Amino acid sequence: MSVLITPNASVHASFLTAMKEFQAEGRGTEHDNSLVGEEIQEYGETWHDPAVFTEYLAWLNGQADPANVPEGWVPCRSLWWTDGEEYLGRITLRTPLPEKIRRQVGHVGYDVRPSARRRGHATAMLAALLPVAAEAGLTEVTIICAEDNLGSIGTIEANGGLLEATLHGRLHYLVPTRR
């Protein structure tokens, strides 16, 4: 059964395999400014080392604390979607979120590893995150995706997302945290 967990070393081997899958599809290049891409650029050559992976986990989990976030950034809680020791994907919750940043990136971002896609993981992962967002005091979250990202559109709408706006080829959805 798949569940959200706080990032930890229990899925280290599977996580490394997932990152190789992302790299095989072009993630982690110098032009990839996604969260996964930036982390591959920073840690991809070294996080096979358990000590480096432990440092990475401390950094990643620390990003939820406003005291650890660089100026101009917002706190970001990362959760991993796993099935036992298999890493399937990640979802992030950015909060508190100033209006300007909400309109740029939204509250929620997620990635499902390539070999686990098209099996409902993103939809289930988002459904599992919504109560976490409610506990953080949010009545709704903003999720932004590209107009041609049919998988994300389906994931968001399956979780009650309503289209708020279309800006610069990106769809802005509002998703209630309680239904």
TrEMBL record:
| Gene Ontology molecular function | acyltransferase activity, transferring groups other than amino-acyl groups
Q: Which domain of life is it from?
A: Bacteria
Gene3D superfamilies found in the cross-reference section: 3.40.630.30
Give residue ranges for domain N-acetyltransferase: 38-179
Write the protein's name. N-acetyltransferase domain-containing protein
Species assigned in the record: Actinorhabdospora filicis
